[in-house]
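Need residues for this backbone.
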């Protein structure tokens, strides 16, 4: 059985591992099953199909801020009420990492959690394996879930949560065709290499006569492009090897990525870039794109739907294409995915009843509501056949990409991924401000990751 760590250590380790941004709305090579050597022992088996309690309140916390309207609508359906057999669901969105960590460390977590650091909670023994319940389920079926999503559900040969809510493809270059045409570029021939993309970036970046920034082409670190997973996939290497628990952040290709992405920001000016982000309504993860201050963004499949729901007058111009790769990797069509889960907390009061809620989230009724209210897709094969890819401008690219991609990964697998993300953010700024060479930054990133791995007792 997994050793229960102290509340102080859980908070210390968890805060470091989850200190970066929460998992985004959203993502393989071989099916990954290996885990840190110190965490090999599996959870005790649970009863395959216990009788659900009746008349209880099931609690579910998640980090997304835009999901509550969909869940509010879902819980009012007759199908959900019948499924719950007299139980009720109490859900809470926009939950911070600090709040969930504190509750788990205190032994008072909700029954389920989503959009937190799934590998970290698993590696710390805070959540239950769901193999047996899934094995007995008539709803959660491997043959009806995309293979690359199913592959991402396992650590230590254990299924660490119930996949669902939203999971599809993570990488695409989205661009505003109106702004592209105004810049004299051809929206039907989007750039496929970083070198071509830099030229588009320069053409789409606009200053006034006083040199003030009015519009930027691309922030190379916005949204999904801001994670080491993306840089590694684009440049064709792995920064984290799950099979042997090794880090490769000092690969020369990481330095190449830092240098290339730095060029985008140097062209605009780091301070001007930072100033653009500080304006209300011009933040990351689509905000500046929705404000038509940023003409392009590297985002996941959710971008078309979220943009349509949040800013339909901008969404009508949205186009999507392949994310860029270096010129030397011409022809590579990269993608990534990674399942979102409902994880069942070991100290939750009603884990099986929460499991049944997770099952319902895979029901077509729930998937339809989430698609309509939030713009999200889950890779359930039979349901995907019912989705109209023209519903949201740009979504059709992602639907086709599932069969056209040439390289793909299951991302966000490293248990200290959020820690590495935070260090990556700090060090890449040192590069584009010319305070550190890209090679030195990659070496320092490697050093910090190894030190943290040791500090958390994972080596």
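Answer:
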């Amino acid at each position: 059985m997994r050793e229960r760590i102290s509340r102080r250590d859980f908070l210390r380790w968890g805060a470091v591992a989850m200190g970066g941004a929460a998992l985004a709305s959203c993502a393989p090579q071989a099916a990954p099953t290996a885990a840190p050597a110190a965490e090999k022992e599996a959870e005790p088996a649970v009863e395959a199909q216990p009788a659900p309690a009746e008349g209880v309140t099931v609690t579910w916390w998640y980090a997304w801020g835009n999901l509550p309207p969909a869940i509010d609508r879902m819980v009012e359906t007759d199908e959900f009420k019948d499924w719950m057999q007299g139980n009720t669901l109490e859900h809470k969105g926009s939950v911070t990492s600090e709040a969930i960590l504190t509750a788990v460390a205190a032994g008072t977590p909700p029954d389920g959690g989503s959009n937190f650091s799934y590998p970290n909670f698993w590696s710390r023994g805070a959540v239950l394996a769901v193999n047996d319940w899934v094995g007995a389920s008539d709803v959660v079926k491997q043959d009806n879930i995309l293979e690359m999503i199913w592959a991402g559900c396992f650590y230590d040969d254990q299924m660490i949560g119930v996949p669902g809510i939203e999971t599809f493809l993570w990488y695409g270059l989205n661009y505003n065709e109106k702004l592209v045409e105004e810049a004299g570029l051809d929206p039907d021939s989007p750039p496929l290499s970083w070198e071509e993309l830099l030229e588009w970036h320069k053409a789409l970046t606009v200053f006034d006569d006083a040199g003030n920034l009015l519009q930027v082409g691309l922030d190379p670190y916005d949204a999904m492009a801001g994670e080491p997973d993306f840089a590694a996939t684009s440049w064709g290497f792995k920064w984290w090897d799950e099979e042997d628990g090794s880090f490769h952040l000092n690969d020369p290709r990481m330095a190449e990525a830092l240098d290339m992405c730095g060029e985008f920001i140097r062209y605009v000016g780091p301070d001007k870039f930072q100033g653009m982000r500080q304006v209300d309504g011009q933040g990351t993860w689509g905000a500046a794109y929705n404000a038509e201050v940023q003409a392009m963004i590297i985002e996941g499949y959710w971008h078309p739907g979220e943009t349509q729901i949040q800013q339909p007058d901008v969404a009508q111009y949205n186009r999507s294409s392949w994310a860029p790769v270096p010129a030397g990797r011409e022809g590579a069509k990269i993608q990534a995915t990674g399942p979102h889960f409902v994880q069942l907390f070991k100290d939750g009061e009603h884990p099986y009843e929460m499991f049944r809620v997770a099952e319902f989230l895979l029901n077509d009724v729930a998937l339809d509501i989430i698609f309509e209210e939030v713009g999200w897709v889950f890779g359930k094969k039979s349901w995907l056949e019912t989705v109209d890819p023209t519903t949201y401008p740009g979504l059709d690219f992602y639907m086709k990409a599932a069969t056209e991609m040439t390289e793909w990964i299951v991302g966000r697998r490293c248990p200290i991924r959020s820690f590495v993300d935070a260090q990556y953010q700090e060090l890449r700024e040192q590069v584009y401000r010319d305070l550190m060479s890209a090679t030195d930054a990659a070496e320092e990133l490697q050093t910090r990751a190894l030190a943290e791995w040791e500090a958390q007792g994972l080596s």
